[in-house]
């Protein structure tokens, strides 16, 4: 299938400090060589700790900011060389929904006005039919058309996210970037919104980039997952494959935090050591080496390339072929495999009490029962 979105070698460094004369003294390497593709109607999740560059990738894809290097192709067109007309069309075809829908909904406008605005801006529906289209959009997201007369503050968080989704759908997009769309919602509402997103995807053929640090949520929605660390993708694979067999030590640590569906299975929680290095001054070589229990000299000196196997499972790790199997699902009775016991011991010996910012990994003692 032809890709809807092709991102190649994307780089974005922000100036973090300037001299008195305005010269850049330090850069944050927010995005540093990111490549991926997304097919129509599919969901790619971007996951990783806070500050790893997920939102910057989203803003680059939407052309809200310009990259320092790299290309973004959308529907076969190079985004960076679009003329004003083509750019206007692209602004319709790619939409974003945010974590806090309330902040993005104008409190002085009724829901009807909020949904009419994009229709008028892009001249999509004749004036006489706009009310009808607003009703249709509300029904599409599970809200009653009579609610069009109400204001955002009259709705719950979940309903407001439905309104934000309806507004994104108003312009008939092909791609929606979902930036932590359920993180601010009550747990009981989250699955309703995720189910709605899936239903809309099936019905309208939408592609999603799903930005999240919550892997339990990602598991529910993603077709493919890209794990980011300090501005780079360290692993990318089909979601089922990545959740069943994470290869990169960082992905394994992230995944060890999510609950398992099997009632008698137990997973070793892996707690990474120390502070996350800063994107202002990322470690040389592999950017994960300061926290990796499998580190060898080569990792400190040489950055590993992201290499895909025949099935399209890509990993950036010098030692990927030598690591113990990603046997993170443990039968309660069986205890750890010897390799995993070593792995967990290596992680937990020095890290009791530490936590991995942004992913909610708890300190955990290995168990052999
Ligand atoms: N406009 C900016 N100027 C300077 N630095 C920036 C700017 N935008 C982002 N950064 C820095 O770039 C890095 C990546 O930020 P980004 O917001 O993309 O990460 P993220 O993974 O989306 O984090 P979060 O999950 O907290 O939103 C961070 O170190 C951030 O401080």
**In whole angstroms, how far apart are the ends?**
47 Å
CATH topology heading of the largest domain:
Rossmann fold
- Number of domains as seen in the coordinates: 2
Average pLDDT works out at 85
- Rg, rounded, reads 22 Å
Q: Widest sheet: strand order?
A: 6-7-8-3-9-10-13-12
Query: Any idea what the CATH architecture of the largest domain is?
Result: 3-Layer(aba) Sandwich
Helix/strand-derived category reads alpha/beta
* Uncertain segments: 328-340, 346-369
How many individual β-strands?
14
Bound molecule types = adenosine-5'-triphosphate
CATH H-level homologous superfamily name of the largest domain: P-loop containing nucleotide triphosphate hydrolases
User: What sequence of helices (H) and strands (E) makes up the elements?
Assistant: EEEHEEHEHHHHEHEHEEHHEHEEEH
Q: Characterize the overall form.
A: globular
Question: What is the level 1 CATH name of the largest domain?
Answer: Alpha Beta
Number of helices: 12
- Which sheet architecture does the biggest sheet show? 8 strands, mixed
Assign a percent range to the helix content: 25-40%
The fraction of residues assigned to DSSP E strands is 15-25%
């Amino acid at each position: 299938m032809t890709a809807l979105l092709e991102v190649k070698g994307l780089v974005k460094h922000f100036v973090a400090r300037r001299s008195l004369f305005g010269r850049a003294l330090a850069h944050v390497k927010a995005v540093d060589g990111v490549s991926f593709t997304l097919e129509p109607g599919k969901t790619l999740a971007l996951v990783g700790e806070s500050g790893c560059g997920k939102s910057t990738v989203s803003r680059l894809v939407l052309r809200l900011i310009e990259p320092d290097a790299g290309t973004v192709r959308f529907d076969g067109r190079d985004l960076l060389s679009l003329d004003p007309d083509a750019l206007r069309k692209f602004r319709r075809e790619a939409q974003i929904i945010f974590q806090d829908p309330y902040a993005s909904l104008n409190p002085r406008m009724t829901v009807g006005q909020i949904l009419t605005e994009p229709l008028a801006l892009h001249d999509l529906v004749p004036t006489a039919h706009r009310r009808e289209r607003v009703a249709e959009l509300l029904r599409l997201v599970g809200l009653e058309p009579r609610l069009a007369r109400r204001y955002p503050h009259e709705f719950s968080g979940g309903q407001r996210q439905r309104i934000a989704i309806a507004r994104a759908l108003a312009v008939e997009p092909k791609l929606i970037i979902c930036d932590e769309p359920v993180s601010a919602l009550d747990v009981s509402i989250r699955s309703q919104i995720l189910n709605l997103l899936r239903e809309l995807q099936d019905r309208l053929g939408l592609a999603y980039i799903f930005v999240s640090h919550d892997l339990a949520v990602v598991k529910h929605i993603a077709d493919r997952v890209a794990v980011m660390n300090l501005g780079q993708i360290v692993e990318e694979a089909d979601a089922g494959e990545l959740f069943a067999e994470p290869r990169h030590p960082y992905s394994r640590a992230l995944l060890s935090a999510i609950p398992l569906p099997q009632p008698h299975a137990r997973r070793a929680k892996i707690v990474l050591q120390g502070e996350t290095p800063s994107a202002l001054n990322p470690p040389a070589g592999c950017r994960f080496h300061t926290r990796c229990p499998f580190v060898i000299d080569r990792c400190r000196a040489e950055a590993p390339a992201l290499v895909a196997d025949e099935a399209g499972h890509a990993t950036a790790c010098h030692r990927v072929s030598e690591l113990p199997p990603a046997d993170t699902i443990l039968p309660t009775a069986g205890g750890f495999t010897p390799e995993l016991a070593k792995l967990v011991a290596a992680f937990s010996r020095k890290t009791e009490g530490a936590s991995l910012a942004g992913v909610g990994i708890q300190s955990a003692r290995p168990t052999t029962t």
